[in-house]
Structures are given as structure tokens and as C-alpha cells.
Amino acid sequence: MKAFSVKSSVFLLVILVLTYTLHIEAQQCRPSGRIRGTNPPPDQCNQENDSDCCKDGKYYTTYKCSPPVSSSTKATLTLNSFQKGGDGGAPSECDNQYHSDDTPVVALSTGWYNHGNRCLNYITIHGNGKSVKAMVVDECDSTMGCDSDHDYQPPCPNNIVDASKAVWKALGVPESDWGDMDIYWSDA
């Protein structure tokens, strides 16, 4: 009876470890492919906020997913202009409108954008010891790029919160440090 009990316990432990491992594995977001960059036509890639332009022959990783969302999701905050003529390019995906740089708005990487399910909803961004609420108005496309629709910029990484100047100001980040910053966010 004791031998049966030990064997059963070991078997149960193995099953639990495998189940946990598969659960962790399922939560990971892996690249879905890559695209080959081409040089943009003259004056077709707006580098207003130090945006990158695609390079001919360089391969860029694409994603259809983002890391799992939690009550404190780690991300990289980047700078974007949602104004007409800004480096955001076209009007925002959620409402087909441009938004002032003085309004706290964001674009989320494809997986977090979730087919528009977060459109016009607020998220809370925590960074630099402060927090701010910002409205989701656009997708930072992780699946495509290097074309006119994407202002000849590479695909977004899968962990981006692309924010207006108003968000950076509200977080109290000195303008000289605007660009990339580690943050945490959650649905508001």
C-alpha cells in the first residue's frame, strides 16, 4: 500500500509540473513571422519623434500577440504624435480622427489592441513614480509595416504603449528623456 501511495504521489507531481509548464508555455508570445524592409520613397517616412524608417533588405520581426495583460502589465512607453501631419501617419484606427498632442492618448501593440476591443477605453499608465489615464485610440501594428499605410516604419514590437506628448508630460518625464521608458499599465 505504501509503495502504491509513493508511486501515485510521484505520478501526480509529474502531471502537475507538466500542466504548469504547458500553462506557462501557452502564455508566451512568440514571433509570427518577419517582413523584409524597403527604403521609403523620398520624404515619405516622418521621423518627427525619432521614429525609425525601414531599411532596404533588413528583416523585421512581426507578432500577432502581446504578453498577457495583468493588473500591472510591463511595457515600453514610446512617443508618438496623433496630430495631422505627425509621425503617427493616418487618422486613429478607433475613431478615424486625429488627436492633439496635448490630449493623453495611446496606441497599443496589436495583441493588446485586441481587434479594437480596447478602443476609446482608458488605461492607467504607471511610470517615473506617477500615473496617468490615457484613452486608447489606435493600434501600433505589430503584424505589418514598411509600407505607405505604416509611414514606412517597421512593425511595432509586441509590448508597446505608444503615447502622446501629454502622457509623457503627465508622468513628469523631462523632455530630454522622452522616447523609450519602461512602464506598467492596466485597464482603467
UniProtKB/TrEMBL annotation:
Keyword Signal: yes
Keywords: Secreted, Signal
The keyword Zinc-finger appears for this protein: no
Chief place where the protein resides: secreted
GO cellular component terms, A-Z: extracellular region
Record's signal peptide: 1-26
Family: Belongs to the kiwellin family.
PANTHER family named among the record's database cross-references: RIPENING-RELATED PROTEIN 1, RIPENING-RELATED PROTEIN 2-RELATED
Protein name stated in the entry: Ripening-related protein 1
Organism: Dovyalis caffra
